[in-house]
Amino acid sequence: MNGSSQAMFSNPALLVVLIPLVFAVLIFLLGEKRSGLGSFLGVIASVATFVVTLSMMKTVIGGGVYEASLGEVVPGINFALRVDQLGLLLVFTAALIWVLATIHSIGYMSHGHSKRRYFSFVALCLSWTVGVAISANLFTYLIFYELFSFSTYPLIVHEETPEALAAGKKYMVYILIGSSFVLFSIIYTYFLAGTLDLSMAGIPALAAQNRAALLVLFWGFMIGFSVKAAMMPLHGWVPQAHPVAPAPFSAILSGVMVAVGAFGIVRTVLNVFGVALVKSLNVSFTLAYIVSFTIIVSSILALNQDNLKRRLAYSTIGQMGYIVLGTVLLTEFSIAGALVHIINHALMKGTLFMCAGNIIHQSGKANVSEFRGLGNKMPLTFIAFTIAALGMIGLPPFVGFISKWYLAIGALDAGGVFFVIVLLISSLLGGAYFLPIIYTAFFQKAEGEAAAGHGHDEHGHGEAAKVESIEAPAVMTIPVLVGALGVIVVGIFAKAPGFPLDIIKAATNILLK
User: Fold this and answer.
1) pLDDT, tens digit, for every residue of 466-480?
2) CB-based burial of residue 473 (10 Å sphere; 0-12 exposed, 13-18 middle, 19+ buried)?
3) Would the pTM count as exceeding 0.85?
4) What three-state secondary structure class fits 77?
5) What value does the mean pLDDT take over residues 160-186?
6) Cis, bond preceding 233 (omega within 30 deg of 0)
């Protein structure tokens, strides 16, 4: 839907990138003294991006696309945007989580430092994430991917502690390695195919290349994007970055930004190579076994983490494995499960990290072993946490069940009973590291509470100890409750018009023709 140059800036494909970018600049120009206004503008940026995204849904779900070209950069390669079904899915996910996390940030960062820097980079990262999602070719994708990767650094090191700076340094090392592989693969794609366009059927010219060249290209992309997606053994930056980053940004980082790496793998399989070509290379099960190792081992490692955010970080590593696993199994149901898990995981993990932010902000406690009795003091936060955690385990009617159901059916369609077993083991391990948190918070008493409950009133009945509420303020509680509600509603009405499976159905129908 390209218009004239006069109408260019009314094009939703361009607006959805420009809105958060413009607001990021405005927030930075306001200065630290007006950071309160800056945080408000950050919310406006994410809400406006979400509204523009909603305006495109009917057309894109119906098979249409929105396009915008900013001109030819080098002969044959344009800096161009295209909103298709896959791109819309990630844009919708990002905009939704950014709205919740940015509102949550107002409360979490109320006594924080460098708020101008924080809110401007949060808005900036939204712009780059959207750009990655709707890039029309690999050149545009590379530009946004690199901007996105490097703009994450100031948010990871925001607290400026030695631990945060060390995590930021480790992140940069990993990202530089991953980006080098992505750059090589994009250049090699152009060398082999003479084009970088991303189409829903893959790049046809690649099919004429020899198997050895295609394998080099395929694994180059896989290694490069697996760094951002935190596939083992390329995951090392994630468990170190999450505990030190501000919790609302952890919700963004885990819910969306790590998923960008998995989305890169999705684009590689479905839009660079195409389903038929990947099948001909016979690499699907090899990668699926590697991913299965990531899913199981990350869940085992999560069991041993007392720090809540670190436990959630290891959980994220395994959950990204679900997206990659479903993609490489190459069946209709597995791909649908992978794609729907992008938004389902973002809802669940975004809610969990914001809940972690509430807990840390209000109680000063970051370790699970310290949560005894907190469920009674922060009931709304821990109810939201419980809903999201049950979704992560995969219990119906929550969104996590939808993902795992489609992935399991897809694995059976691919003849991979082993991968169904992996999903079942992962769910059991999820229960093993989530349920103790809930039990500790709601059913174990904090030190001193048991003794306080031994008093008796004049009728000889036990006198319950008075529980002092430390629930987070509304600006932090409402986002987690909305997230938890989404975990339920999207699970129950998964196939309703405009819901994730509706978007995905349109995409998979095209991809698997």
Assistant:
1) 678 999 999 999 999
2) middle
3) yes
4) strand
5) 95
6) yes
Q: Please provide the size of the chain in residues.
A: 513
Distance between first and last Cα of the chain: 24
| Rounded CA separation 227/320 (Å) | 11
Task: Estimate the crossing angle of helix 258-267 against helix 211-229, to 10 degrees.
Answer: 160
The β-bridge relationship of strands 66-74 and 77-83 is antiparallel
Q: What's the rounded Cα separation, in Å, for the pair 123 and 417?
A: 43
Residue 6: pLDDT band (50, 70, 90) is: very low
Determine the Cα–Cα distance for residues 360 and 249; give it in Å rounded to an integer: 14
AA identity, residue 470: I
Among 276, 292, 278, which Cα is nearest to 325's?
292
Q: Which two tokens stand for residue 217?
A: 């290209």
Tens of pLDDT, residue by residue over 441-461, are 999 887 666 544 444 444 445
Alpha-carbon radius of gyration of the chain: 23
Selected residue with higher pLDDT from 199 and 379: 379
Q: Report how far Cα 17 is from the mean position of its chain's Cα atoms.
A: 18
Would you tell me how many other CB atoms lie within 10 Å of the CB of residue 469?
A: 10
Where does residue 110 fall: left (phi above 0), alpha (psi -120 to 50 degrees), or beta otherwise?
alpha
Phi, psi dihedrals of residue 61, rounded to the nearest 5°: -60, -35
Q: What are phi and psi of 197, to 5 degrees?
A: -65, 140
State CA 274 to chain mean position distance: 24
Q: Evaluate whether 122 touches 99 at the Cβ level (below 8 Å).
A: no
Q: What percent of the chain has pLDDT over 70?
A: 93
β-sheet bridge partners, residue 411: none
Q: Coil, strand or helix: which one is 305? A: coil
pLDDT tens-digit series, residues 42-65: 999 999 999 999 999 999 988 889
Checking if the pLDDT of 4 tops 50, the result is no
